[in-house]
Design goal:
The protein is mostly helical and 230 residues long.
Length: 230
């Protein structure tokens, strides 16, 4: 007898969508975090102010509210922009997947900016000056001296953000994305077995979190080998 009442493939697909959305959001979020950290450390006051405003906004608005703002706000903005070109065009509806990925990437990037900034400022200034003394350019100093150390120092913080992002994917179900939480809701509506499917979803989230923690722990140990040896 099928304990999932035929909803097993849907739950599995939802779990895969959850992982996919978290991965894609994290990739874009890391890029935003690097840009945010660079902006925070910029010598231009206006750039620093914009970066601080972005980080403060992300940290001050609940994730669910931000997802709704991105989903409905992007629909309104794109519809009005299209109306400038085609006045007879109707409302443009943004699919849940890109809207959810964009919202989670914004959230990831806001927190990652602080992690990267802290990691960069933790690198001794003397190492940068030594690179400049031997004739290395700004980009060469970053990729050869700063980036490897920054990634090692930022890894624990990025790991925490990744796990939070993995769980925050459940919030995208509110805009209709068929990830793990949405699949569990659909299965519950059809079978009336709410406890079973929500416990199953919780077990999957817990499994993904534990596996992520194990992988991150191994990466942290690998990154700290040189430090322990020194």
């Amino acid at each position: 007898m099928d304990m999932f009442n035929g909803w097993g493939p849907t739950i599995a697909q939802g779990a895969w969508t959850t992982v996919e959305v978290a991965l894609v959001s994290s990739v874009f979020g890391i890029a935003l975090g690097l840009l945010g950290a660079a902006a925070c450390l910029s010598r231009f006051k206006a750039v620093r102010w914009l970066a601080e405003a972005y980080i403060t906004t992300i940290r001050g608005i609940p994730q669910l509210l931000l997802i709704l703002m991105v989903y409905f706000g992007s629909t309104v903005v794109l519809s009005r922009l299209l109306a400038l070109v085609r006045p007879d065009a109707g409302m443009v509806e943004i699919p849940p997947y890109p809207a959810g990925v964009f919202a989670l990437a914004l959230i990831f990037g806001g927190y990652a900016s602080e992690v990267f900034r802290g990691a960069l400022t933790a690198i001794p200034r003397g190492q940068v000056e030594a690179g400049m003394a031997v004739g290395m350019g700004t980009l060469q100093i970053f990729f050869v001296i700063q980036c490897p150390q920054m990634l090692r120092l930022a890894l624990p913080g990025l790991g925490n953000i990744w796990i939070s992002t993995l769980k925050d994917t459940s919030l995208i179900s509110i805009v209709g994305l068929s990830e793990l939480m949405k699949a569990s809701e659909l299965a519950t509506s059809d079978t009336r077995r709410a406890l079973f499917f929500y416990l199953s979803a919780g077990a999957i989230y817990l499994t993904l979190t534990v596996l992520s923690s194990l992988v991150l722990h191994q990466l942290e140990r690998r990154g700290a080998r040189g430090e322990r040896t020194a």
